[in-house]
Fold:
Amino acid sequence: MNSKRKHSEKVNWPVTILLILGCITIFFPLYMAVMIALKQPSEMTNDIAGALSFPQHWSLGNFTEAMRVTDFWNSLGNSLLISAAAVILSILIHSLAGYAIGRNMKSSKFYNFVYLYIVSGMFVPFAILMMPLVKQTSQMGIGNRAGVILLYVVFYMPMNLLLYSGYLKNIPLALEEAARVDGASTWRTYWSIIFPIMKPMHATAAVLTVLGTWNDVMTPLVIMAGTGKNTLPLAQLTFQTQFGTNYNLAFASYLLALLPVLAFYLICQKQILNGVVNGAVK
Amino acid sequence: MEKTNERKRTFLLITIPVLILFFLFNTLPLLKGFVYSFTNFKGYGSYDWVGLRNYTDLFTDGRIGKSYLFTFKYAVVCTIIVNVLSLVLAFGLNSRIKAKSALRGVYFLPNVLGGLVVGYIFSFIFTYILPAAGSAMGSEFLSQNMLSNTKTAWAAIVAVGAWQSIAMNTIIYISGLQTVPEDVYEAGGLDGATGWKRFRHLTFPLILPFFTINMVLCMKNFLMVFDQIMALTKGGPAQSTESISYLIYQNGMNGGQFGFQSANAFLFFVVIVVISVFQLTVLGKKEEQL
Structure:
């Protein structure tokens, strides 16, 4: 017994060291981006040192300039608005749909059909809907941020419906019946009992929806074209076509675009990892 | 009785608007695209019905054929590389190592970063860093810019795609490995199962459901590759890295081929459904056998 415990506590050093060395592949691109962003174009020689060495003078000048050129605060605001609205609406609407459909799909053919119909939407990539959707949203007058938010709510519905109705299977009906006996309506029972109980699933749905919408390029690119409004990734695309050759400025701008999601990851790492695993495995 | 009706009514009042919303922005555009695929619509102005001509043209159009070849080559190679590397990484991160959660956190990092910006950063590496390193080492092959050569550009895109996707698959494999109980290994150890044999006959069958998830996720995501193409090559050089999504965007939205690319999009949809269903049934059967 004693020897077995000793065995399980032994640290596998070769693997640890290999894994630490492997981190270079993750950090190298980011390190390079930081070094280039801190330098002036005159310091960029044509060898590797020109890109990777520390700058002669530490200066955040590129960052302030990049913020000005890319209209950073407006793009950030748009990205925040779109992602936040998409997540809040998704949690409210998809959990409700998961409840209504999940509670009835076993007993009713209609709800079972609705469930399969919406979940099968997972197989429909955006590229296929893109062209008709651009026409449709502009005809409806929502070829703008509101349209992008609405589309995200629809696109993430299949996955979130799957997650919510799956989670609901573990919540006993007895909870609702008790409330019903007390005279509460179904609507009130949902908001006071079921919605709070599904909190772990809200976290999962929120994480998956945020990661998907925050980094998405294609939807805002085609839907918001011509509105003059940018999201953070879109601003990089416009920036690249205009100033792509000034790498110092460009990398400052790229890093600014990565910063919010990096901060989010550092703060909520545990929830994000849990959310991603829950979402994929269920 | 009153109560049951109230419950039924509430459920319907929730479901029907959701159903309408989903139909309006998912099914309706799919059907519209299908209808457009029988026209010569340019995206503006008037158009005529052309019957099945767009579909027959798809099979003779060299650019379409090239984009399917590229997309499939990319998706298959990426899927293999990503699954092999993430399985290895998952074993490492699941063994008795120091700083386990910190290392897992680091290796997951690429997944949260946006594909477009990552693509731009790697574009610099392929354009300046790798050639500089190559010529310093005296290697003729490495001192060229991979992205400007039709033979190597796709490999560069594979590298970037894999760099980002390994994160996600590794996390899924780790959660798979954690479901394997320790006593399975102990029992297997008594029977002399070690190394590759242990993996092949003990571990792999037990994590097969996770393998299925990863295969399906990988293929679907890689077949839809867009951001990396946009950032790294814009379909070049000489249209050698045009993915299907990129071609639909490029020619359908800006190239006046709305009708023709609608046909392409619909074919693409059928292909994705067939592949996903095929993967799920084949791998599902394997799971049942075990």
Summary: DSSP finds twelve helices and no strands in chain B. The two ends of chain B are 48 Å apart (CA to CA). The CA atoms of residues 186 and 193 of chain B lie 9 Å apart.
